[in-house]
Amino acid sequence: MTLHPLHRRAVVADTHNDLLMAVSARPPHVWSSFFRDRWLPQLTAGGVDLQVLPVFIDDQYRPEGALRQTLRMIECAHVIAEGNADRVSLCRDAREIDAALESGRIALVLAMESMPGLDASVELIPTVHRLGVRVASIAHFGRTPLADGSAEDATGSGLTSHGVAALAEMERLGIIFDVSHLGASGVAHVLELATRPVIATHSSARALRDHHRNLTDEQLRGVAATGGVVCVNFFAPFLAEQPAGYTLDRLLDHIEHIAGVAGIDHVGLGPDFVKEVYDDLMPPFCEGENDRGVDPKATVPGLAGPEGLPLVTEGLLARGLPEKDVEKIIGGNVHRLFGELLT
Question: What Pfam families does the database record attribute to this sequence (predicted)?
């Protein structure tokens, strides 16, 4: 795919790609080469300049092996960066991100999704910060010692005392708080307490698809009020209820809705490309709907992986959005946010 000139010159940021799950599943001696052979071509084809790498711990490792797998995945990110230093750079602050971009390398930023393994041990948050983590959430679909995920919305619970302490510690250290996956009451609690901008790394618009993983208009405005950014999830079942709605147009509808509600300075892209990860890790006999009632391999045509990102740029331009607004959406807003917070 030939990159549109705007896509080529803009900073393109993806705030959620679970590729570390696939890479770290390999033997350590091939981590670097597997990333270079399998994932780097996709990121390059998609024009990705800034890639957030979440550390997500699958159920099979919880609870006993969660901390060990967390450290293994963090080490995997470092090995990837060291073995591909000509093409990528693992960045800890805005200066390092800008240096990577200026040199033509992809800036990688480590994130944690739900913090399993740390749980209520808030004193370990500085440890993962030292290891390079710069974005983190405190819940996934279920309940953690810090907060409830959105699938537990019926509990009506906010952050636990440990969750409140975790938010304060993350703000002290300069780790960006991620509200994606957090339950509705937890999001409200964070927005009440936060003194720094927050991010939603992979959440779409609940007004267009009534799913607990998406954010309401009130939540969108709340994130924007902190100065934060909502990064739209491309996962097809979160965009529409029926497969007929798994389209690029529907994704663009979510982007435009969030821009309209939160403001053009508060929307980004958090694709959550998981099909290839599931292809790598899921046994064939486990395929089909998961225990959350969605097909984890369902995709928007052309957007199964990073190489499809130029379609979003072209689609937004075709809808008549000004180039300066498209630049903000596809990465400029996230780049600005990281520049403000990762100092």
Answer: Peptidase_M19 (PF01244)
